[in-house]
Amino acid sequence: MTTFYINPVNLIQTLTMALDLAVDGVSLHQKRTAIICSHLSERLGLRIDVEHDLLSAALIHDIGAASSTEERRKLADPSMEWSKEAIFVHAEKGYQLLVNSDTFLEIAEAIRYHHDNWDGGNPSGLAGQDIPLIARVIHLADRIDVNTRKTGPILHNCERVQSLIKAGSGRSFDPELVDVFLDCSAKESFWLDLTAPDRASTFNSKMKMGITPLSIYDMLHVAEIFATIIDRMSRFTATHSRSVSGVAVFLAKWNGFSQNELHLMRIAGLLHDLGKLSIPNAILEKPGPLTRDEQLIVRQHTYYTYIILDQIEQLSPVAQWAAWHHETLDGQGYPFRLNEAALSLGARIMAVADIFVALAENRPYRKKLPQESIQRIMSAMVKENKISGRIVQTLFDNFSEANLVVQTMEAMTQPTLDPVSA
Ligand SMILES: [Fe+2]
Ligand SMILES: [Fe+2]
Ligand SMILES: [Fe+2]
User: Fold this and answer.
1) Which ligand minimizes its atom distance to the CA of 142?
2) Which of the four, 16, 187, 297, 419, has the lowest number of CB atoms within 10 Å?
């Protein structure tokens, strides 16, 4: 079993970047929430392990809303009036996503209750001290960040936000935590840290502590969670990441990859469309052809996949295998316009797997294609020097096995899944 010496907090920091991708208003919200949590935790004198859980949970606290760009936007908008139940929906979804993972189990509960009000009336039935401390701290930090205006000098915000939070003391928020906030937000650096999240003084040093090795199986589980989030963005691609992953692993196996490389290929396949989190659901769900402007928005997704995964050094070469799936051998692909000389076997395999799966599954604008059509389209792409003829041949030689992967994954989709609000 391969062990990756990945600091889970670093991994979470990387993943929070994925969750904050290019969505107006919510960008960096989770990181700023975590910075506020780190100030509160310092004043509270939390134990180091509790603080780690707090910061990790804060960094991905809105993970349950990740599949919906609209919901993410609303969560960061202070003018949004939430109905009593609606605000809790993403908190419960976040819990459900994480609760089966060893890596995130500790923080799943905190995420579940991060909108619970101190004075009760929550779906959880909890109130006061019964709400886990980490959830109470995140709730407060989240509202501080959401109500802090992101334009203009940040120090102009202090008094307004302080009195707003004070008004919620004992109702929305734990009164002791509100006092802690009022105390530590007296210093200017509390606010200025939010304007420079990558340099925030106390936060960054805390993030570097505590290396707990993650095994490849832990990493696979994390990749599965993110594949679920990506695939829930559209009911038409509800199993796309898993299918691409399955087909890519088959192709890699037939091309002599080692067991360890096959694990990495599985992870790369699950995460190849990670950058899709930057694309509005309305574009992914559009039932007709995309406009030129919409196509350009779609084109950004592999760039984001690359910059997110490239940060996890230990996962090399996953970033390349995952993110180069729209590059073509003739150098006309995107976003790096790499050519034959630069594209590794793993990247070529992913490109073939992605095209095959896309043709073999239903799309908003057409039904899945039959074998002859798939073979005709892919052969033409080989002729145009877009994709590898050798890999395509391997695929054709094992067509039914590859097709079975897609059909099996599709059959596993829960019919009740509501992708946009999921
Ligand atoms: Fe939230
Ligand atoms: Fe939030
Ligand atoms: Fe893609």
Assistant:
1) 2
2) 187
Ligand that lies nearest to the alpha carbon of residue 274, given by its number in the listed order: 3
Least confident of 105-109, 116-120, 135-139: 105-109
Ligand 2 centre distance from Cα of residue 387 (Å): 42
Mean of the per-residue pLDDT values of the chain:
88
Distance 32 CA to ligand 1 centre (A): 13
Residue 269 CA to ligand 2 centre (angstroms): 29
Residue 199 pLDDT: 72
Q: Which of 279, 163, 260, 170 is nearest to 219 (CA)?
A: 260
Span from the CA of 70 to the centroid of ligand 1 (angstroms): 13
The Cα 85–Cα 422 span in angstroms is 15
Domains of the chain: 3-207 (1.10.3210.10), 214-411 (1.10.3210.10)
Give the model's confidence band at 419: pLDDT under 50 very low, under 70 low, under 90 confident, else very high: very low
Cα 301 to averaged position of ligand 1 atoms, centre (Å)? 24
Cα 114 to Cα 132: distance, rounded to the nearest angstrom: 9
